[in-house]
Every structure is written in C-alpha cells, then in structure tokens.
C-alpha cells in the first residue's frame, strides 16, 4: 500500500525500501559526486538523504536514493538499508521460512551485535498492533535460544537470540566469510528458508560454482583461484545494529 500525493505517491515496497510511483517523469534529482543526495517533486516537495518520511503511519529514514530507467521511465527507490548478510545467512538458523518470519512485510534486518549483546542474532521488526504480530511476538519468546525483546523506538521492536548450539561452527564460518564451509544441513536450511533455486546465486556461493568464479574474475579483472569463496566477507558495520541508520 502507498500514500498518494499529487501526480505521484510513495509505496512501501519492503520494510526497508520505498518506491516513488505514478508520474515520476517530472521528478528531478540533486547529485553530489555522482551520488543522488535529494529528489524534488513537481509540487516543489523535496526529500534529502537522512530525511524521514511517514508512509502508512510508519517512518522510513532515507539513507540511499537510487534511480533506474525502465521503459523510458525513471524508477526511484528510497532506501533505509539494504538487506544484509545476517538476514540471508543467520536468520535461517532459527528455523521456519520467510513467510513465518514475516520477512517481506515487517522484518527489517538481522544483526550479529545488538547493544550489549555480541555474537547473537538480533531481529529488527517494524512494530504492528495486528493480533497476528502480537501472537508472533509471543511465539518467538518461547524459542530455546531467545534472550530478550526491547523497543528501540515506538515503531520498532528488536528480538535477541543466542546462536543455536547446533550452528556454532557455521556461525564462525559466517563471521570469517567461509560460506562454502557451512555444514550440508545448514546449506539446505538456507536454501529452504529463502526458497532459493538450486541454480541461483546463493547456491553458486554455497557450492562454489565454477561459472560464478569465472564471471567474478572477469568483472573484477582479478585472478580468483579455484577454491576461493565467491562472496565478500561481512562488513561489521552493516551487521551491527546502529539505531541512527534505522530510526
């Protein structure tokens, strides 16, 4: 759902990303060193980096602005944060599927460090008063690895978990960027959780696909020896919860 304005409107594409819909041909951008730092609309309304806009009564902080041209029409995205590696790799340690964890509706990102907790799995959600979400909160609190829940703001809720004991070695491999060294069970869990295709990008990373190695080698114009990991190691800043980014 979106919030409608004159000629254009903002649509909550994901819990992290807004898109500008409608008449976008008259939207203009302001750039600094080839990076978009602001967008101006036909009614002279302007949004800049680090501004916050409310859509469907939920605040979205804008930390990145992207534009793509599709069918001769510009498509804009206002981004709080990209989905990080903890969301892709660690969230499946807790079991279930994307649908069960409200991945596409309320889940924002996962983290390895949350306030005083280190080497954990922190799950940031947009708060909802929907009875289904309240039931979901109670269900998470019953997990064996559950530690605590707290509200970093009235619009967000954080759930903190210990690393499940059966995934301790996989967690260490994740921290060290050794994705191909994950146990077969954990690799299957990641693929199942996200409903990934066995021929897709994630499978190519987990199983060190030769075509991906050669493609990356060409794109990066650097030699990548056989047996190398085919995804970059984690950036600790992206995997550590920083309220200034999200709130």
What does this structure look like?
With 247 residues, the chain is of the alpha+beta class. It folds into 3 domains: 2-79, no CATH class; 85-167, no CATH class; 169-237, no CATH class. The protein is built from 8 helices and 14 strands. The protein has helices at residues 85-89, 131-140, 168-175, 184-194, 201-206, 210-220, 236-239, 243-246; strands at residues 2-4, 8-12, 17-22, 28-32, 35-40, 46-48, 52-55, 58-61, 64-70, 73-79, 107-114, 117-126, 146-153, 156-162. The strands form 4 sheets. It has a 5-stranded antiparallel sheet, with no helix packed on it.
Portion of residues in helices? 10-25%
Please outline the major beta sheet: 5 strands, antiparallel
Structural class: alpha+beta
C-alpha Rg (nearest Å): 20 Å
- How many strands appear in the DSSP assignment? 14
* Order of strands across the main sheet: 1-2-3-10-9
Number of domains: 3
Distance between the termini: 21 Å
Q: How much β-strand is present in the residues? A: 25-35%
What is the average of the pLDDT values?
93
Low-confidence stretches: none
What order do the helices and strands follow? EEEEEEEEEEHEEHEEHHHHHH
The helix count comes to 8
The coarse overall form would be globular
Task: Describe this protein with a few key phrases.
24% helix, five-stranded antiparallel sheet, 34% strand, four-stranded antiparallel sheet, 8 helices, 247 residues
